[in-house]
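Readers of this paper often ask what the protein records in our data store actually look like. Below, we set out a record of this kind in full and without editing:
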Amino acid sequence: MRVVSTDGSGYVLAFREIDQTQVAVVGGKGANLGELSKIDGIRVPPGFCITTDAFRRIMVEAPSIDHLLEQLSGLEPDDHDAIRALSAEVRRVVEDIAIPDDLATAITHALAQCGEQVAYAVRSSATAEDLPTASFAGQQDTYLNISGPAAILTHVRRCWASLFTERAVTYRLHNSVDHRKVHMAVVIQQMVFPHASGILFTADPVTGNRKVVSVDASLQPSAWGSDVSLHVEGFRPGTLCTVWLRRSDGAKVPAGSFRYVWGGESDEAQLSSGLDPPDVKAIGLKAGSRTFTAPVNSSAQGSGPTAS
């Protein structure tokens, strides 16, 4: 794995230089990636963070934004037409700003160390993400499979601008968050192509119940030929979860198991069956007394899992 070394400009930080105290510098996502990169056995795809210093530098390049943000701050959260028009104007101004040469050089220098022609995710990382009283997850933009320095720089600007999407502006107004006090960092991270991926919520994302774990995972089209989601919810920490795959002849093939332990680490999940993707027709998971299954075939696209 290549390790990025920074140039001291303050505009770019390698993951290994970041920890959870630097949310104001690299945003919530960047800070968490920095912490993960320090854990032995956790393979964080290589990349780096473009800091909020870069964002503030860009905002200074467009004095008209101050007036637009002042207007946005004076709107009511339900004034959708005005929010839509003003936020679109802010995004247009930000996307049109030329990145100064020294800032562009700092970004492309870090990119060259990771590999310029590799596909990257250009990920928003705002300083207001995952607050104790509010969650901004999904309200700013991330772009996948971006290759080449010019395309990366273009999508960095789009990430900066996405701090002012209509939904993000409205959410800040609802929660009395000052638009001028929220800043955007950008994570540049190499793409990986997994057989499966997902999210484990350590609290119910709907009710906020912290005694319930929710897992939302999917088999990836590149590996399995269709995008199949397996949504699992309602089981408690400490529950043993077993995973299996169903072959085309109907037989179940064990794929592994794991146990989530509240307040500690999960057991390592070794999910492997030796089956080739074309041989798999369904995936299933048993959590306690509940069973969740989802088909894996071309007709499964758009269909949801079943639970019993």
Notes: The chain has two domains: 12-190, 196-307.
